[in-house]
Amino acid sequence: MAKVAFTQNIQRHVDCPPAEAHGRTVREVLDKVFADNPRARSYVLDDQQALRRHMLIFVDGEIIRDRAGLSDPVSENSSIYVFQALSGG
Fold first, then answer.
1. Residue 74 exposed, middle or buried by CB count within 10 Å (0-12, 13-18, 19+)
2. Number of separate domains in the chain
3. Is residue 73 a part of any domain in this protein?
4. What is residue 88's predicted lDDT score, i.e. its pLDDT?
5. 36: domain CATH number?
6. Three-state SS string across the chain, please?
7. What are the beta bridge partners of residue 84?
């Protein structure tokens, strides 16, 4: 199962503990992780189910390319990290 982790910065706003789920794409894995956590889903994804502009997702250390469809491939041993992009100086 792919491992999914959310940064502490996100966890300050919404409860999203580390999780594991089966899936072949980022979308499939996140759908399973968010199935019982609609609040986390709406924090990370917009109303079109695309990644919100201020969020980043890395799979095995590489930033995903498909922010709208989340179709980037995931293996059974993948690590998915969800970050909230920060700005400022």
1. buried
2. 1
3. yes
4. 60
5. 3.10.20.30
6. CEEEEECHHHHCCCCCCCEEECCCEHHHHHHHHHCCCHHHHHHHECCCCCECCCEEEEECCEECCCCCCCCCECCCCCEEEEEECCCCC
7. 55
- Partners of residue 3 on adjacent β-strands: 20, 79
Residue 89 lies in a domain: no
Alpha carbons 29 and 6: distance in angstroms, whole number:
14
Interval 10-49: pLDDT, tens: 999 999 999 999 999 999 999 999 998 999 999 999 999 9
In a domain, 27, yes or no: yes
Domain range enclosing 44 = 2-84
Residue 24 phi/psi, 5-degree rounding, is -100, -10
What is the distance between the alpha carbons of residues 66 and 87, in angstroms, rounded to a whole number?
Answer: 22
